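[job 4471] stage=fold_predict status=RUNNING
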Amino acid sequence: MQFHLFLPQMRLTIAQLVERASAAEAAGFEGIALMDHLMPPAALDQPMYEAMTTATWLAAATETLHVGHLVLCDAMRHPAVLARQAVTLDHASGGRFELGLGWGSVPAELETFGVSSTAARSRVDRMSETLDLVRALWSGERIDFDGEHHHVHGGQQLPTPLGHLPIVIGGAGKRTMQLVAKHADWWNLPIHKLDQLEHLRASAGSARVSIQVMVTLVRDEAERADVVEAARRRFGFMPAASRVIGNAEEVAAAFDAYAARGVERVYAWFTDFAHPDTLQAFGEQLIKI
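[job 4471] inference complete, writing structure tokens
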């Protein structure tokens, strides 16, 4: 099982984000994933930093962590910009960037800022074109592309990726699964769709399976009640099926069950905002054992 830290870049200062990324690296996490929104989900009064800029900063502050997002919203960037950003981060990090892409989980923010259509069909069609165009630009060849949403005539971008630049696609809809099978190295299955894993697995092609799980790690049994109550106050609105609560042994049992079903990567989202002590304990008790 690969462990990546899911660290939404909100509620925390830049210094605290760096502190947590460094702690995750020291704890043995293989990667870190940020989010991509124009408004902080369910927390409009909280500060939030931009996704690609934050990823660049954290990549510069670490040495081994793979850096990515769950997931970038396709509508927010022109594919030529996205392709260039991804390759720049790939080179700057020494091959540690992963391109996570989706067609937007919060249509309301697209409407609020007038970014693009909120219609699901239009957004997934746009993302399909984006993936084709980004991969074509990564070839370094001069390309022509005429789609419904994107048009490029004689476009070329250099440098090309250092090696294979991984693509992560999140979702479970029919059109999304077609994109997963065509483009993805990793398929991030929404945790609320986990009961469909076996049914959908064949349609994911060769993509490996990841999930995002909210983790409440009880480091000390004497503090269990307080830790669980704090998690309930902060994230009680989240579905129970998306959460794992317990000490290291209980959390490990849950992860073992995921692994038995074919999940190869977990993005752990800690309900204490990834306190460095929690990351250290997670590393010692679950990753490095």
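[job 4471] summary: The chain has ten helices and twelve strands.
[job 4471] exit 0
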